[in-house]
């Protein structure tokens, strides 16, 4: 991490204007792993998601074991960040990256990867790990209980026990919108900081969502260039660029809407994945 940026941010965090007890840790790049770092930062600052992962970690401690899977590695990483004594610093997600490369040959190289493909793979891996955990519980109890796979495993550490409703709530709280930028776009996409969604099937059909994280792609295609992340924490916006963390103004987000036609020949820095969280 850049010493100047780190020191400057730490001073701001210790001031009265920046309240709370949040940790802001950059992640070491192990050779074109910015696609991974950017998604991990976005997920960490999606509070409902983080709470569930940390609860899973606590659950594993209670039963006296630690799962050697991607979910276990993610839980360990999130716990390491959340329990750091200093508020600003750098952490190397080595165990997570090693496990990722071992489990999927697509990521077992030093080439740039698509952040959205990684996000999909990670969420599927988490779902499979949770489903497997519930299946083992069912076997231990001789099949006397009915298990709803991921739906119940998600509810077992944090949500209610209402089957599909549990999964729906979990997904809605961590609503993500993928901006289809597999090819370089020469026009601007204005994404809102606040999003209103209507769903007539829900009791609360009119819900507001707040933008909490943005994975930004810098370059011409998703498999080339670089990824960074913008996150919102305690009404402040911060930029994570691998091991570099710095505070930014909210107005800076407009820089990542994309390029206008007159700048279409330049490499763009454009929002690639948006993370919205349901407002309580």
Automatic annotation (TrEMBL):
Catalysed reactions, semicolon-separated: Thiol-dependent hydrolysis of ester, thioester, amide, peptide and isopeptide bonds formed by the C-terminal Gly of ubiquitin (a 76-residue protein attached to proteins as an intracellular targeting signal)
Keywords: Hydrolase, Protease
Alphabetical list of InterPro entries matching this protein: Papain-like_cys_pep_sf (IPR038765), Peptidase_C19 (IPR050164), Peptidase_C19_UCH (IPR001394), USP (IPR028889), USP_CS (IPR018200)
EC number(s) on file: 3.4.19.12
Enzyme class: hydrolase
Residue stretches making up the USP domain: 25-279
Entry annotated with the keyword Hydrolase: yes
Pfam family name, one: UCH
Molecular function GO terms recorded: cysteine-type deubiquitinase activity
One annotated Gene Ontology cellular component of this protein: nucleus
GO biological process annotation, one example: protein deubiquitination
Similarity field: Belongs to the peptidase C19 family.
PANTHER family assigned to the protein according to its UniProt record, in alphabetical order: RE52890P, UBIQUITIN CARBOXYL-TERMINAL HYDROLASE
Protein name: ubiquitinyl hydrolase 1
Species the sequence originates in: Bursaphelenchus okinawaensis
């Amino acid at each position: 991490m850049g010493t100047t940026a780190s020191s400057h941010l730490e001073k701001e965090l210790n001031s009265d204007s920046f309240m709370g007890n949040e940790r802001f840790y950059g992640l070491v790049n192990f050779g074109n792993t910015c696609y991974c770092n950017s998604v991990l930062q976005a997920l960490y600052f999606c509070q409902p998601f983080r709470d569930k992962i940390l609860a899973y970690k606590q659950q594993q401690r209670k039963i006296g074991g630690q799962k050697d899977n991607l979910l276990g590695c993610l839980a360990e990483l999130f716990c390491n960040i959340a329990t750091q004594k200093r508020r600003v610093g750098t952490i190397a997600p080595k165990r997570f990256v090693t496990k990722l490369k071992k489990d999927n040959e697509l990521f077992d190289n030093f080439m740039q990867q698509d952040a959205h493909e990684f996000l999909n793979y990670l969420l599927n891996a988490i779902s499979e790990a949770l489903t497997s955990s519930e299946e083992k519980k069912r076997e231990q109890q001789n099949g006397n209980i009915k298990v709803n796979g991921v739906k119940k495993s998600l509810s077992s550490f944090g949500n209610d026990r209402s089957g599909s409703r549990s999964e729906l709530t979990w997904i809605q709280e961590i609503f993500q919108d993928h901006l289809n930028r597999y090819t370089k776009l020469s026009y601007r996409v204005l994404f809102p900081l606040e999003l209103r969604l209507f769903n007539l099937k829900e009791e609360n059909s009119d819900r507001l969502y707040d933008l909490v994280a943005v994975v930004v792609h810098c370059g011409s295609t998703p498999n080339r260039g670089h990824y960074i992340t913008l996150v919102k924490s305690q009404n402040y916006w911060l930029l994570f660029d691998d091991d570099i963390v710095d505070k930014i103004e909210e107005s800076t987000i407009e820089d990542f809407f994309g390029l206008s036609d007159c700048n279409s020949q330049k490499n763009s820095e454009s929002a690639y994945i948006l993370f919205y969280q349901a407002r309580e």
